[in-house]
Amino acid sequence: MLSERDQAPGVQVPATRDEVAALATTVNDLLSRLQRALARQRALVADASHELRAPFAVLRGELELAARPGRSREKLRRCLKRAIARRPYRIMETAAAALHPAGT
Fold it and tell me: DSSP letters along 13-79, please?
């Protein structure tokens, strides 16, 4: 039984040195490439998730401060304008950088 959790997935290669052995070797090569691609995909998702947490945390903090009691309408308006103007752009930049790292 093959599973994505297998460290060394593959099929047993018979010692016959015939078409069946060649096919088993080819299937094992394919499974190895798929396992490496899955590892790269998981690393990309983990990196992107990590990179996006900070901008969202800052945006949330700014909005929570803006919503504190006692703020004047003008202070609230300025804070919201600043958050709207800066954060979405930075979040998009961070996502783009995570998806397309320099040099790749």
Answer: PPTT-SHHHHHHHHHHHHHHHHHHHHHHHHHHHHHHHHHHHHHHHHHHHHHHHHTSTT--HHHHHHH
pLDDT band with cut points at 50, 70 and 90 for residue 15: very high
Q: Name the residue type at position 35.
A: Q
Residue linked to tokens 């070797």: 25
Task: Examine the pLDDT at 44 and tell me if it is beyond 90.
Answer: no
Task: Tell me the whole-structure pTM to 2 decimals.
Answer: 0.56
- Choice between 29 and 98, residue whose per-residue pLDDT is larger: 29
Tell me how far apart the alpha carbons of residues 96 and 48 are, in angstroms, rounded to a whole number: 9
51 is written with which tokens?
A: 């990179």
Domain boundaries, the chain: 19-99
